[in-house]
Design brief:
With about 300 residues, the chain is mostly helical. Helices cover about 65% and strands about 5% of the residues. It has twelve helices and two strands; from the N terminus they run ααββαααααααααα. It has helices at about 1-10, 30-45, 80-115, 120-140, 145-170, 175-180, 185-190, 190-205, 210-225, 235-255, 265-275, 280-290, and strands at about 65-70, 75-80. Strands 1-2 form a two-stranded antiparallel ribbon. A hairpin with a 2-residue loop joins strand 1 and strand 2.
C-alpha cells in the first residue's frame, strides 16, 4: 500500500486548494476562494513535490508522503491516511466517469453503428455503478465549507433514494430508460446531477482546468434541456457524447496533480476542528483576525 501511494504521488504535478470546513462563527470573507486562488498560483509557479517516508509528527506513527507545507495556521504534511483518501477520491471519480461513458456508449452506438439496442438492465447497471462511485467521491472530497460539503451529500442521497423509488415504482422497473422516456422522473433522481455540477464548479474554481468548466457548463444544459423537452434529439446526443468523453479525461487528469492539491490547506481544517471543540488558541484568533475570518466584538 505504501508503494502504491508513493508511486502515484511521484507522478503528481500541480498545487491548488479546495473549498473548506466552516465553523459556527461569523465570517467576513469566504476563505475558500482566497485559498483556491493561492493554490492555483502556486501550481503555476512550481510542480515540484517533496516526498519522504518518516514518522508523522501529528499522527504518531503515520508516514509522511508529501511535505512539509506552510499553511495559514502552521506547517502540515500529507500522511498515509491523507494520501489514501485522495487516491480513493480520484479513483472513484474515474469509476463514475467510466460508468457514464459506458452508459452513453450503449445509448449512442446502436444508432450510429446499426447494432441491437442494449438491454434495460445494462443501463441500470451502469447507473448503479455511477451512483456508488460518485457517492464515494462526495464522501471523500475535501471542502473547507462544511455546510457545502454536507449539502452535496444530501443532494447525492436524495438522488440515490429517488433512483431507487423510480426503479421500484416505474412500470418497466428501469431507472434509465423510464427517466429518458419520462423526463419528469428526473425530479426524483436528478439531484445527483446537481451534486455533480457542484463538484465540477469546485474543481474549476480551484484549478481552472478547461475540462472542469466544460463539464460544469454541459451538465445543466443536458439534464435541464432534457427535463424541459427543449433539446433537439441530435443536439442532446451530441452533448451526451461530448460529456461522456470529457468526464473520463477530467477524472484521469486528476492524477497529474500532487496529492496535497486535493487536500488544500490542512491547517484550516484543523483550525475549524479546534473552533468546533472550543480549543482555539490565541494564535488561532490572531491569524483568523488577520485573514478577516472573524469580527472583533
Amino acid at each position: 500500500m505504501n508503494l502504491v501511494i508513493i508511486g502515484v504521488a511521484l507522478i503528481s504535478s500541480s498545487v491548488a486548494d479546495a473549498f473548506t470546513h466552516t465553523a459556527n462563527m461569523p465570517l467576513r470573507h469566504p476563505v475558500a476562494l482566497a485559498t483556491c486562488s493561492t493554490g492555483a498560483a502556486a501550481a503555476r509557479r512550481s510542480t515540484k513535490t517533496t516526498l519522504r517516508m518518516v514518522a508523522s509528527p501529528d499522527k504518531g506513527g503515520g508516514m509522511v508522503v508529501e511535505g512539509p507545507f506552510e499553511g495559514k495556521f502552521g506547517s502540515w504534511i500529507v500522511d498515509e491516511a491523507d494520501a489514501a483518501e485522495v487516491l480513493i477520491y480520484r479513483g472513484s471519480l474515474v469509476a463514475a466517469a467510466l460508468a457514464v461513458a459506458a452508459g452513453a456508449t450503449m445509448a449512442l452506438l446502436p444508432d450510429a453503428a446499426g447494432l441491437d439496442a442494449a438491454p434495460d438492465w445494462a443501463f441500470d447497471a451502469a447507473a448503479a455503478a455511477f451512483f456508488a462511485s460518485f457517492g464515494v467521491s462526495v464522501a471523500t472530497i475535501h471542502i473547507y465549507m462544511k455546510p457545502m460539503h454536507n449539502f452535496l451529500k444530501v443532494l447525492w442521497a436524495a438522488g440515490a433514494m429517488g433512483a431507487v423509488l423510480v426503479l421500484v415504482a416505474s412500470p418497466s422497473h428501469s431507472l434509465v430508460v423510464d427517466s429518458f422516456q419520462k423526463p419528469e422522473l428526473l425530479l426524483a433522481s436528478g439531484w445527483v446531477f446537481v451534486a455533480l455540477t457542484g463538484l465540477f464548479f469546485k474543481e474549476f474554481a480551484c484549478f481552472q482546468r478547461w475540462e472542469a468548466s466544460a463539464l460544469f457548463a454541459i451538465l445543466p444544459v443536458l439534464t435541464g434541456g432534457h427535463f424541459l423537452h427543449i433539446l433537439p434529439g441530435g443536439l442532446e446526443a451530441t452533448l451526451l457524447g461530448v460529456f461522456a468523453f470529457v468526464f473520463p479525461f477530467f477524472a484521469l487528469r486528476k492524477f497529474d496533480q500532487p496529492l496535497n492539491s486535493d487536500i488544500g490547506d490542512k491547517t484550516i481544517f484543523q483550525y475549524f476542528e479546534r473552533v468546533e471543540t472550543g480549543q482555539m488558541t490565541p494564535q488561532d484568533m490572531e491569524v483568523a483576525r488577520s485573514m478577516g475570518m472573524v469580527r472583533d466584538e
